[in-house]
């Protein structure tokens, strides 16, 4: 595989690295991929009225998590409860504007929890999730500023009136 | 109400304007709030390898919509099927980094469809949605680059092993 050169290639590589860190349960790699306000010369502990570089994350069906503490704790919890997870990404779309990149993709997920009752593996579950991932350019490369994943619910062709509004 | 001055105040005003346009069913106002690659000197029709300023949108439970055509058509459809909608926003958080702003908020939605069978109003439905809205700074103010809304599902305190992974 060649070294990425263009912005879009760099962003795609950062996006792939994010899902690989999750697949490998590599918490250190995952932590390093998320933006740290300190990378931008901002100390998150002090009051920055614009909350520059403060990350946020929405797992499918979850409320919003804000800041490195909440976000990284959620991944530690998820990793502790996931024995096996694989992401097949489709429909990856990248839009780069200035120092920010917007990635949308479909996550075709296969995952399994810890074994229960003496089984060798927990039950495997398939999930269809769409994600919007926002990356910011830093001196250390593109870092994840926001992840929002949500379940794709079945289409209802027969009745358009129950489409959700926003 | 005073005129917004700081970046955060300007972004909050743009975010509020987005939901007000939806409440009022004002398609023209809504269209003007979404980023247009032309505002950035990019012609969406020509091949821009970075897809600069190309918008995306995820309605709760929907797949990803990309580009002004798909996104604005979805809002036209939603507006045509919504007689009444009100958003009570809570937990609004803004993070501004350079020329991009990330807004997360909880949308407490009350909505109603068109009347059926001679009723005066369609049934009112309450919904709890969390949203990540990404705005980009242009000469015309902050414009919406991405909206991702997703349903908040009930917490299950008794069993952490079914937490969703990403």
TrEMBL record, chains A, B:
Highest taxon above the source species: Bacteria
Pfam families assigned: SnoaL_3
SnoaL-like domain boundaries: 11-152
InterPro entries hit by this protein: NTF2-like_dom_sf, SnoaL-like
The name this protein goes by in its record: Nuclear transport factor 2 family protein
Biological classification of the source: Bacteria, Bacillati, Actinomycetota, Actinomycetes, Kitasatosporales
């Amino acid at each position: 595989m060649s070294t990425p050169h263009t912005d879009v290639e760099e962003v795609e590589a950062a996006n792939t690295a994010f899902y690989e860190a999750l697949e490998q349960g590599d918490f250190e790699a995952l932590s390093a991929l998320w933006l740290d306000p300190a990378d931008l010369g901002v100390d998150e502990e002090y009051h920055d009225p614009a909350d520059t570089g403060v990350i946020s994350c929405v797992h499918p069906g979850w409320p919003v998590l804000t800041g490195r503490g909440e976000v990284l704790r959620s991944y530690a919890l998820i990793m502790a409860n996931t024995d096996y997870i694989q992401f097949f990404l489709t429909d990856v779309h990248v839009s780069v504007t200035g120092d920010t990149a917007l990635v949308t993709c479909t996550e075709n997920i296969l995952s399994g929890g810890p074994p229960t009752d003496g089984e060798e593996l927990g039950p495997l579950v398939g999930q269809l999730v769409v994600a919007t991932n926002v990356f910011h350019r830093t001196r250390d490369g593109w870092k994840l500023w926001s992840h929002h994943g949500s379940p794709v619910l079945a289409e209802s062709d027969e009745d358009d009136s129950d489409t959700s509004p926003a």
